[in-house]
Amino acid sequence: MRSACFDIERCRVNKVTIGPIPYLVPIPIVLVGADVDGRPNFATVGDCAVLGLRPALVVVSLSAAHHTTRGVLARGAFSINVPTESMLPLVDCFGILSGKDHDKAALLPSVPGELTGAPLAVDCPINLECRVRSVTEVEHRRIFIADVVQTHVDERFVTTEDDKPSVAPLTELHPILYALDNGYYGVGKRIGTGYESGRALAARLAGA
Ligand SMILES: Cc1cc2nc3c(=O)[nH]c(=O)nc-3n(C[C@H](O)[C@H](O)[C@H](O)COP(=O)(O)O)c2cc1C
Description:
Blueprint: H1 8-14, E1 27-28, E2 30-36, E3 39-45, E4 48-52, E5 57-63, H2 67-75, E6 77-82, H3 88-93, E7 110-111, E8 120-121, E9 126-138, E10 141-153, E11 158-161, E12 164-167, H4 170-173, E13 177-178, E14 184-185, H5 199-207
Antiparallel strand pairs: 1-13, 2-3, 2-6, 4-5, 5-10, 6-9, 7-8, 9-10, 11-12, 13-14
Flavin mononucleotide is lined by residues 29, 41, 43-47, 61-63, 66-68, 92, 95, 97-100, 178.
């Protein structure tokens, strides 16, 4: 199918190059938790993404200088905690202060999970326990690919039918989103359904 930008000249005319910026937005903001010298610590992180559902894989990119990174490297484990909009001041603060100088665990209660080294932030409705599979160094970054070994969801956001749990829609979870304009955002409305919203078009093209 021809897109509106099929003509590369027209595409160039209508677009302005802004340099090599990874403008993939929105970015979900999470708190990455680790056990550092026997004490939980949390860092605010945007560079975190799903790599696959089966197996359940995630990637997190942390600066080597962070206190949290030291714990992840030492234990080979971390948690990903999904905060809610109401936690925004704390979440931003955890991206400003370092556990090297401040006891962030005192501000965010956590409990151990099944995995040693992955503290679960009680106030976050979703916690993932992650075991590091590989670490790649890119300049000052330590990029961790990890298996999600367990997922905890606040029971208020889970319904179970025929023994199959399903998690409440995003509009009820109120995660914090971030964009490269340095803005925090909330979730907007649902606009479609995966493998469904394009079905009529796919059927038309397949039949053509
Ligand atoms: C919105 C936001 C997003 C951030 N994303 C990342 C990130 O993806 N990776 C990273 O290494 N640091 C990121 N940071 C910075 C760390 O959270 C920050 O340096 C923090 O103080 C590290 O804490 P720690 O030393 O206790 O581990 C982010 C900060 C903010 C405010």
